[in-house]
Design goal:
alpha+beta, Sortase, Chain: A, 8-stranded mixed sheet, 4 helices, globular
Length: about 325
């Protein structure tokens, strides 16, 4: 210790050298912790906070089959009519019973194959700014990872068919929460070479609400600058009528960086699942970019998906700040 800490009898030079060494050591340890927390420890903490929820929910886990050359057969996955899941007295699915005992604000569970996304989803309808779970874990503790949460305006009720489910999640650099949605982004510098193949392998995701299980096929991936007032308003849970909803769907298609019109039809009878995460293009120029993945629910009797013909959409409507091609 005498070789490291200033001690009686040290010269002024020795004291200065030891203090400089100690300052450097402390700086190194603090920086090491911050880097580890950002890229590794944060993921560990998030996994720990969610572990008890995973343990009690039988619907967790990446159990969807992968598509082959864009073709996905779900016949062996879909339950038969005689295998309807049991419900509780309030009509919630029995598979959610233990989850709701842990947190009664849980409204669903989302699983995206090929990613780490396998999380409970919460909603606080009274939180009209959608910020309660923004920096809190699912147990309500302060956590920069936040929790996946549904927009307060999306109405979830047994027997009611809401037009849109909108779910927010952070883009964490440790790979957790909704960061892995970027794997679908054909414009992202990290994933653009693999994104189209990833999409064609994993076009269907699972989002179960506490009232109904569901599979959803992705048909649009949008890039939105929320600081651009003239850009498309995609955070909507209510519509004036059929024509309003049809125009909403058209806007989603027009802005999609992938062209799915030849193989995935979407109409006003369909429910949409809208997943949003931050992306950081042009942040130095004041832009607030979002990557938005949109899927429609598979219809009754729809047991296969063919996205082999999906291509990039070179005519996609992009934010004004967007300067690069797709």
């Amino acid at each position: 210790m005498a070789r490291v800490l200033p001690t009686k009898g040290d010269t002024a030079k020795d004291v200065i050298m030891k203090l400089v060494f100690l300052a450097a050591l402390i700086t190194f340890l603090v920086c090491g912790y911050l880097i580890a927390e950002k890229y590794w420890l944060g993921a560990v903490f998030t996994s720990c906070s969610n572990s008890k929820y995973v343990d009690v929910y039988e619907g967790s886990g990446i159990d969807l089959p992968s598509a082959s050359n864009g073709m996905l057969d779900l016949n062996t996955y879909l339950p038969s009519a005689s295998e309807a899941e049991p419900r509780e007295a309030d009509n919630t699915l029995s598979s959610f019973s233990e989850l709701l005992k842990l947190n009664d604000e849980i409204i669903g569970w989302i699983t995206v194959p090929g990613t780490v996304i396998d999380y409970p989803v919460v909603q606080r309808p009274s939180d009209t700014k959608d910020n309660y779970y923004l920096r809190r874990d699912i147990n309500g503790n302060s956590d920069r990872h936040g929790t996946l949460f549904m927009h307060y305006g999306c109405h979830l009720e047994y027997g009611y068919k809401t037009p849109t489910f909108i779910i927010y999640g952070h883009h964490m650099q440790d790979g957790t929460m909704f960061q892995n949605l970027m794997k679908y982004d054909i414009t992202d510098s990290k994933y653009k070479k693999t994104a189209m193949n990833f999409y064609k392998t994993n076009p269907v995701i699972k989002f179960n609400t506490k009232y109904e299980n569901g599979l959803w096929v992705i048909f649009s991936i949008m890039k939105i600058n929320v600081n651009q007032p003239s850009d498309f308003t995609y955070i909507r849970s209510e519509f004036a009528g059929t024509s309003d909803y049809a125009n909403f769907i058209k806007n989603i298609r027009d802005r999609s960086i992938i062209d799915t019109e030849s193989c995935i039809d979407v109409n006003t009878d369909d429910q949409l699942l809208i997943l949003q995460t931050c992306s950081y293009e042009y942040r130095d120029n004041g832009a607030e970019m979002r990557t938005v993945v949109v899927a429609r629910k598979l219809r009754t009797g729809e047991s296969s998906v063919d996205v082999s013909g999906v291509t990039k959409n070179s005519d996609a409507v992009m934010p004004d700040i967007w300067k690069k091609g797709i």
